[in-house]
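Entry 14: structure prediction run for LTXXQ motif family protein. Input pasted below.
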Amino acid sequence: MKKITPYLLLLFLLLAGNVMAQRPNQNIDPEKLQAARIAFITSRIDLKPEQAERFWPIFNKYTEQREASMKSISQLNRGGEAITEEEAKIRIQKRLQLQQKLIDEEKAFVAEVSKVITSKQVLMLHDIARDFNRYIYQRQRGQGN
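Run finished. Output tokens:
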């Protein structure tokens, strides 16, 4: 089960990134979105002030790295219909390297953030981040407040 957990977290993060990437800027204030995300996650995993002070820089750094890798993966997937078989093989290898990089970064994140929050809180991040993305999606569609 311990081996499966990081992969499930990675899968979620990949899916969450895709959901947010599919919704182009629709008058969302990035600062308000960030503040809402901080409040949502902080309350859901019950971060204490001393934990939050150390947690958020680690989490934000990891999130930036993950988003950059996801963007690179997305770019590799574009225009696949108009490339040669050899180029497709090269892109597949690059994508696999980037996916391995995502896993390595997640392992490093979990190791570092586990010094600040409990393993239970780390595990809860998966569902909480998904819940936040769902909440934002529903708000944009006018289905929730």
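Notes: Residues 4-140 form one domain. Will compare against the previous run tomorrow.
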